[in-house]
Design goal:
This protein is mainly beta. It is 0% helix and 46% strand. The chain contains no helices and 24 strands. The radius of gyration is 21 Å and the shape is elongated. Bound molecules: zinc ion (ZN).
Length: 274
């Protein structure tokens, strides 16, 4: 989650992700003086929705209606109105605002019975070396690590749109200081949840921003970039919440007639596309 505070031009950013994604300010909230009111607007030029929480400090002004706990700004929107502040005609007034924002739509819901495809080719086998919420680096995180040699073709576990890519890093190490060096691709699903495929090799993303991918489509080549103790694919499905984001345990099809949560230490074999 990033925090921005607009008060005499001051703003700051913070970041609480396990993997640090782009550092630039991804959403801009600003005020426009209008007739009898001040409009607060957001621009989101990213290809994914973002969730904003707005905090107002008002003296003498009031919002035209109650400001909700969070507001979802659709992908690629300009001048999306957040609220209006009504200017009184007979007394002094002042205001300031700050906001936090996060990737994704906090109204998204995930069906726990949604079935995912193992993200590697039919007939190839990889060990799940870290499972959901494991005792090592996945504590409190429903992420999965499949150990695989660099350059292994990574498949989409679920259909969606390619909305975020980093593939310019050729560095990694087994220390948290390398966490920003991970390459990744993010696929936004139709329910507003999204999957991150992480630690990809340098220039290892084989799809482009805006591409729609189907289950089982090749999307990347695995690697060992970022905070990583050895070549592997880190896979996680997340969704935005009113504050922050959560990761979701995901069911995978492991045989034609079987879908279940995966077990750490087990070797899984990719199956035929549905
Ligand atoms: Zn991991």
């Amino acid at each position: 989650m990033r925090v921005c505070s607009i008060l005499i031009g001051l703003f700051f950013l913070s970041n609480s992700f396990t993997f640090s994604f782009a550092q630039e300010k991804e959403i801009n909230v600003y005020d426009i003086k209008e007739d009898g009111r001040i409009g607060l607007y957001a621009d989101n030029d990213k290809p994914y929705p973002q969730t904003v929480t707005l905090t107002l400090k008002l003296v003498g002004l009031r919002p035209s209606k109650e400001v909700p706990e969070f507001i979802v700004i659709p992908a690629k929107s300009k001048e999306f109105r957040l609220t209006s502040l009504i200017i009184p005609y007979n007394r002094g007034w002042k205001y300031s605002f700050s906001y936090t924002y996060r990737f994704g739509d906090a109204n998204a819901t995930h069906d726990p019975n949604q079935v995912y495809q193992l993200p590697f080719e039919e007939g190839t086998s990889y060990r799940l070396t870290q499972g959901y919420n494991s005792t090592r680096s996945h504590q409190g995180d429903n992420a999965l690590d499949f150990t695989m040699e660099e350059g292994t073709t990574v498949l989409a576990a679920r259909a969606g749109e390619v909305v975020r890519i980093k593939e310019d890093s050729n560095q990694g190490c087994s220390n948290i200081r390398c966490s920003k060096m991970a390459n990744y691709v993010t696929i936004l699903h139709s329910d507003g949840t999204y999957a991150d495929y992480v630690h990809l090799q340098f220039q290892g993303v084989t799809v482009a921003l805006g591409d729609m991918v189907e289950v089982g489509d090749p999307i990347a080549l695995s690697g060992n970039t970022g905070w990583s103790t050895g070549p592997h694919l880190h896979f996680v499905v997340r969704k935005a919440e009113s504050r922050g984001e959560i990761s979701l345990p995901t069911i995978f099809r492991i045989a034609a007639d079987r879908a279940e949560l995966l077990t750490e230490g087990t070797v899984y074999t990719g199956i035929k596309k549905p």
